[in-house]
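Quick question: what would this complex look like in 3D?
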Amino acid sequence: MKENNNFAEGIRDGIPICLGYFSVAFAFGIFSVESGLSILQTLLISMTNVTSAGQLAGVPIIVAGGTLIELAVAQLVINLRYALMSVSLSQKLGYTVKLIDRFIISFVNTDEVFAVASGKKGTVGKKYLYGLILTPYIGWSMGTLLGAGAGNILPASVVSALGIAIYGMFVAIVMPEAKKSKATALCVLVAIMLSCCFRYIPALNTVPAGFTVIICAVAASALFAWLAPVPVEYEEVETDE
Amino acid sequence: MNNFAVYLLVMAGVTYLIRMLPMVLIKKKIRNRYVLSFLYYIPYAVLSVMTIPAIFYSTSDVISAIVGFLTALMLAYMKKSLLTVAAFSCIAVFAAELIIKII
């Protein structure tokens, strides 16, 4: 199987993520400073967490002087989907990715990085992945810093328009595969239906968003793994350890 | 309020462990066909769940978001690159909001 291991290609694939992150991080920066944290604290949160939803949930708990348990549980619930993504991505890593690289790359295994790496044909190598996480990490940090320091620098219309960037990218990843495989398209439709149920049906919409993602994605994927299992590629046995 | 550094440590620590443990612990290639199929579908299912309906609330106006979404769908169907799709959906939102304001 082909291993993608080109640093420049990783950087290039990271640019749309960086663009999307910049806007989201910018919004987070504004939010965090308005909530009462300092610019430095806000930047530190972004640089050590690199997760939008988790950070947005964490700041109010910190500002309100919540318990550490509360903070830990909130992060666990909202971010548990990353465990799923790390399991999935662990199967995509090429021979060049060593143990130490796994420790570093997993630190920036965000929704978007995972999505782009998953969309690659073949396995992903160390150089490619370092390129892929570099630009988004810079975008995330710089966006936060600028949002926290100079939140009113961009007109509201631009911030609003940038808000859709990340989702546009998601569409660009899912669509080609859904077009190619009918089973994937159906799986995606089922996942979307479930997602809408959890958003709009009164009792269900009280489920925390972090759980919703896991429940819907696992249900749809488990169903289609059973209904339409993918052909298994028999490669040579690997000596990864 | 506890010490900020302690909050930061807990928050970042939990997030990192969730991401790091599976990637570090699962080093073998999985061979079970059901599990492989499940893992094949997972990325697309996760992204779809995260996109819909959230995309409709990602801008300051549902209408502009729908315009942006349709733009993304169309360009993605034409297999345009991630950057092209993301950039043009932003531009479409910006244009739509400009038009909405004028009307």
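Answer marked as accepted. Chain A touches chain B through 105 residues (CB under 8 Å).
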